[in-house]
Specification:
Elements lengths: L2 H14 L2 E6 L18 H4 L8 H4 L3 H5 L1 H17 L4 H12 L5 E4 L5 H4 L7 E3 L2 E8 L7 E2 L7 E2 L4 E2 L13 E5 L10 H16 L5 E6 L7 H12 L4 E5 L14 E4 L3 H13 L2
Parallel strand pairs: 1-2, 1-9, 2-3, 9-10, 10-11
Antiparallel strand pairs: 4-5, 4-8, 6-7
Bound molecules: nicotinamide-adenine-dinucleotide.
Length: 281
């Protein structure tokens, strides 16, 4: 099908929806200037000092024990980057569409960067399945989870190392780390994410027989948690629609083409084109 026709159908699906479910992977941040992980401009190209290590090697809590300045070099650089980033205009288009609906919409994302909160989305309607870099926990997995706003980190970006003392949090004891789910993560404190899931599951339950349009952006196939979430909902709810936006991996596994719209463009470009079509409906 011609792409302009798919854009038109996607705009119609957004207009017709009772609620929107916005789902996003790392590709959502690319148009804000953020790296994804595996793309050509992904994090591995951005960290020459980490050559020889894979993402899976680095995203391991073991580093906070064995070489915490390295661990904070990796996570601290990202924290600083996400704090500085201005979310691209596509976030505002999504927010506008959600606010037009009578009922509340929801965001489900594997991104830990807090860009949806920064764009004005209701924090109670966001589920961050891999946690948040802006929230910290104790290294030993005990205690609570607290926001780290205002705590500055000085990172030597070339060496990818924290300069100076290890960070402390006034409300947490001892050594701390970001509340992000890492690989082999025995001490991940899941309470904040569990609460987000409770709200998300209740929202899904509440809308299981309504017209839910899922707008998925930048979700890769290597760790398909975000893609699976949308596809599961499609199978459960015949009134659901999925708009999959991804310049390289927009294919839909779901066979019913009336339920799934594949848009092989970047997020900002696709959302802008949908908005132009939406205005003319
Ligand atoms: N910003 C973040 O918080 C961040 C960044 C990188 C990775 N992560 C974490 O790492 C894991 C990575 O998995 P992933 O699937 O999110 O990332 P990934 O790098 O595996 O996949 C990114 C996807 O985005 C697509 N993409 C690239 N440019 C795009 C654009 N302009 N618009 C839309 N899509 C675009 C790519 O084709 C790819 O399919 C996740 O679990 C996540 O927790 C988080």
């Amino acid at each position: 099908m011609d792409i302009s026709e798919v854009i038109k159908q996607a705009a119609q699906a957004i207009k017709d929806a009772d609620v929107l479910l916005i789902t996003a992977g790392a590709g959502m941040g690319v148009d804000s200037g953020l790296p994804d992980f595996r793309g050509d401009q992904g994090f591995w190209k951005a960290y020459p000092a980490l050559q020889g290590y894979s993402f899976i090697d680095m995203a391991n809590p073991e580093w906070f024990e064995s070489d915490p300045h390295r661990a904070w070099g990796f996570y601290g650089h990202r924290l600083n980057l996400y704090r500085e980033t201005v979310p691209h205009q596509g976030f505002q288009l999504l927010l506008q569409w959600t606010l037009e609906k009578a009922k509340s919409s929801f965001v489900y994302t594997s991104n830990v960067d807090g860009q949806f909160q920064k764009s004005g989305f209701d924090p109670d309607c966001i589920c961050e399945c891999h946690g948040s870099i802006h929230h910290w926990q104790e290294l030993n997995g005990r205690g609570e989870i607290h926001i780290a706003d205002g705590i500055e980190l000085d990172i030597d970006e070339k060496a990818v190392r924290l300069s100076g003392d290890l960070p402390r949090h006034p409300l947490l004891r001892g050594e701390v780390r970001p509340n992000i789910l890492m690989f082999g993560d025995f001490y991940w404190q899941s309470e904040r994410t569990d609460q987000q899931y409770d709200r998300f599951d209740a929202w899904i339950e509440q809308h299981q027989n309504t017209k839910v349009t899922i707008i998925e952006m930048g979700a890769g196939t290597a760790i398909p948690s975000v893609r699976n979430q949308g596809e599961r909902l499609l199978r459960q709810n015949p009134a659901a629609r999925l708009i999959r936006i991804n310049p390289r991996e927009s294919q839909c596994r779901h066979h019913d083409q009336t339920q799934c719209f594949s848009i092989p463009l970047g997020a900002l470009e696709a959302l802008s084109q949908i908005q132009a079509s939406y205005e003319s409906l």
